[in-house]
Amino acid sequence: MPFRKKAREWKSRIKAEIESIFGSDEAPTAGHGQSARSESGTSSWVKPDDWANLKALLETIDQGATMSGLGPVKTVIEGIVDCVGIFEDAAQGRQAYVKLKLELEDLFQELQKYLKLSPTVVANVSDVCGLIQKEIDYVKTQQSKKTVRRLVEAEQDEENVLECYRRIRKHLQGLSRKMVILTLDVVERQEMDRQLDKLMPALSAHYKSGKSLGLGRRPCTEGTRTKVLDEMYEWAVTPNTGNIYWMNGMAGTGKTTIAYSLCERLVIKSKHELGASFFCSRSLPECRDVGKIIPSVAYQLAQRFPQLRYVLCERIQSSPDALEGGPSSQLESLIVSALEDRNVRAELPEGTVIVIDALDECEDATSTRQIIDALLARSEGLPIKFVVSSRPEAAIRDRMEKNDRRLVLHELDKKEVQMDIQAYLREGLAPIKPSDAEIEKLAERAGVLFIYAATVVRYVGYDDFGRNPRGRLKSVLEIEKQSKTQAKEIDELYATILEAAIGDDKLKESECEDMKLILNTVVCARSPLTVDGLKGLLQLDSVERVTAALCPLWSVLHVGPKMTVTTLHASFPDYLIDHSRSGNTKWRCDAVAHHQLLAQHCFECIRDTSPQFNICQLPSSYLYDAKVADLDARIEASISVQLCYACLYWSAHLQASESDTALALLATLDQFLTNNLLLWLEIMNLMKHIFATPGGLIAAKQWATRHGSTQELITLIQDGWRFAQTIVTSPILQTQFASTMDTKSRECLE
After folding, report:
1. Residues contacting residue 364 through CB under 8 Å, at least 6 positions apart
2. Closest Cα partner for 327 from 285, 376, 283, 281?
3. The pTM is what?
């Protein structure tokens, strides 16, 4: 049965049962929740202190006093507590009052159950609370006038007060009924969230994610790039303009900043929606995985549109294999087929846009071509549009240009960019008041490369313009214009900055070596490392050594809010690694050799970890992780940033170590498999990456085979792979995995 239909039938059935209980305005019979009550009513008389369920309800509210949404309910229940004495005075053992009291106590017990749930449920019942408050105010008004005792002496006045409490009972029934239904909605949403989590989206790929801040991502400077942004927005909101807009430009032309600004504009303009965004990045592993793009887009769309959420849950439930397919299969199953549902189409606003930025920064070139082919083949006729930005690389350009009727090709206009770069430079360098001639010369050097201008501003403005900014500006302006190519302009700028940093005669040789070590590590790292992580992985003796090495490189490296270190722009690692660009300089990066060094450091980090078993000191190997209350705190305290990195990426660095000197790693790999394999598996399990372990060992076997490994080492890798595969396929994972690591297991692995 489809997920949506099953969920609705389930809710309807529960709601019908609720109506059968609460539907009547008359008081419930003694058969419902009153089996222990006296028929006469007089024997059930209780003192005010015996309102047990009311007291328990108030305690529950007090315990959640800091939670948002409890205000209206808390006010009402406290008001009822204030009226208990008035109620008892009016009752005087009368059967109608005793019966009503027991009914109220039943309702207080029901309400206590639901008030323990999320305040998102409670926050939607303020209307009913308002009705109850009116009745409470009436009772209190009568008491304040000291007329209640006189009123109840007359039969008619007694009936007035009794009816007031009956109305309170009726409103409490409505409150309980509404909370039950809202609870069902919460439960249904939680079940859908569990289904959508199977998409395994890259949450950090959203244009405004927390990790994007660490990369220094930002919108365009006010007043710049207005023409291109207006053009892109106009294309997005105008019908029949095609389904794909390709913005291309060489590295550093500001594509990501423009894409970010477009996302902001689409969010601000409520009529035309930003459906989803995926900003690719070499710096974040999940953001360079092409296989994450379509599932992440589907996930974001599902968060915005309820009808699409239902349909996607049905697709995931009925065809789980679709998640494992390539980009074309994912697009068909998760986007195209879902958008064929007429309820979904009716729900989507006209002009819903998906923004995919920096597609060229994804790792798998084949999959990148596949996602372009899929978008070009299936986007036409969909009620959504795609904005895709990338460098004009051959594989992407060839496909886009062959399908020009389905896209708008935007080549950034040099004259327009020059004006924007001048505006950016004037703002960024304002503290030192550069002349118009200086601004024009810098803009001319920048050409269409915004990254050139951004790097100049960072270099000149280093330490809040406290490090001889005029001298720094002069050194940039004196770079001789030896080439007409834009790549040469940015290369010369990078060379000037690095010469000033690493080529400083005042530096000790050890300080230069630290800078090169840090620089090469940031460039070759498979995931951003923190300052502390760099210190630990590279076995430096203090964090101060890392920060001292980073300071002169601030113009080309970025340190985020959480102290993660990344390159300022993708063009910088390209420059360092490509020796035809960086030349025979002291700062060029020998990536192959450095990957070998990082692989060695990863192995040593795991080797030197203590203890080698039960690293988080869990109380029992028979407890599931969910039963360990402070597991997250234990993991954070026991598994350092560098140890986490080493476990995740030793295999990747090993694969990239292809030089002759990499043969030295064969012995290190042997020692790792013999002595540290179980610790690695334990840590990967705790970090919820156990499913990556068989693949890592397969890659290690391939690398070892290419480098002339002995058969004994190959056999050892195969044994480790079988053990990892057994853990991955076993239903007993996580902390219970530790119980399998006995002496016999160690012996069989050795």
Report:
1. 289, 290, 291
2. 376
3. 0.67
**Which run of H or of E encompasses 354?**
strand 352-357
Cα dist from 730 to 631, 690, 698, whole Å: 21, 11, 19
In angstroms, the CA 225 to CA 199 distance is 35
Under the banding of pLDDT at 50, 70 and 90, the label for residue 158 is: low
CA 665 – CA 654 distance, rounded (Å) = 8
Rounded Cα–Cα distance for residues 102 and 40 (Å): 13
Give how far Cα 548 sits from Cα of 61, 214, 531, 567, Å.
53, 20, 11, 17
Beta strands in 49-208, from DSSP E residues, in sequence order: none
Is the pLDDT confidence value at 484 over 60? no
> Angle, nearest 10°, between helix axes 126-144 and 71-91?
40
Parts of the chain belonging to CATH 3.40.50.300: 203-412
Rounded to an integer, what distance in angstroms lies between the CA atom of residue 722 and that of residue 167?
69
Give me the CATH code for the 203-412 domain, please. 3.40.50.300
* C-alpha to C-alpha distance for 686 and 537, rounded to whole angstroms: 20
Per 3-state DSSP, the chain is made up of helix, strand and coil in percentages (nearest 5) of 65, 5, 25
Segment holding 130, helix H or strand E = helix 126-144
| Of the candidate ranges 59-63, 152-156, 241-245, 662-666, the one whose mean pLDDT is the lowest | 152-156
How far is the C-alpha of 384 from the C-alpha of 393, rounded, in Å? 26
Q: Which residues pair with 279 in a beta bridge?
A: 357
Angle (deg, nearest 10), helices 486-502 and 509-524: 140
C-alpha span between 45 and 98 (Å, rounded): 7
CA distance 115 to 105: 15
In tens, the pLDDT along 705-725 reads 999 899 999 999 999 999 999
677-686 and 693-706 helices cross at what angle (nearest 10)?
140
- Strands in 587-719 per DSSP E: none
3-class secondary structure, 384: strand
Sign of CA dihedral 225, 227, 232, 237: positive
